[in-house]
Amino acid sequence: MSKYSKYALTFVTAALLTLTTAIQAQMAPAGQPAGPAGRILACLRVVNLTDAQKAQVKTILETARPALSAAAENLKDATAALRALMQADSKDACAIGNAVLAVEAAKDAMHQELVKVRTQIEAILTAEQKAMLAGCLAAPHPPRSEMAEEAAY
User: Fold this and answer.
1) What is the mean pLDDT of residues 17-32?
2) pTM over 0.85
3) Could you give the CA distance from residue 112 to residue 119 in angstroms, rounded to a whole number?
């Protein structure tokens, strides 16, 4: 492998590692419930759920908790493995590539679990509530630092 190829591989994998870390950091900005479903929970605050809907959402989340926790743990482990390979003194391009694929697979698995939760929650919402939830989830949210500054005031 040429010297240029080694530098290019290191740069690409470092960029992917940074991107993965940034995505994980944005999963639960300050002021938002923690956990994989934090964004959905934060948006449910503006949907004006009835008491019956709140109970149903609680049941949905309690049922999904084991799968979401397992998916989050898999993503954490895959990211840690990639980080360890990137910080190793000798870089194994094949191992790094496989680790990147493992991180992507773990992110996809997490996404699929969140889609299941969102679908179940949407099934108990009115059309107006669904529109409010969709709008909230589609809205950009400020980075953690901006949200922390707003909370300080």
Assistant:
1) 46
2) no
3) 10
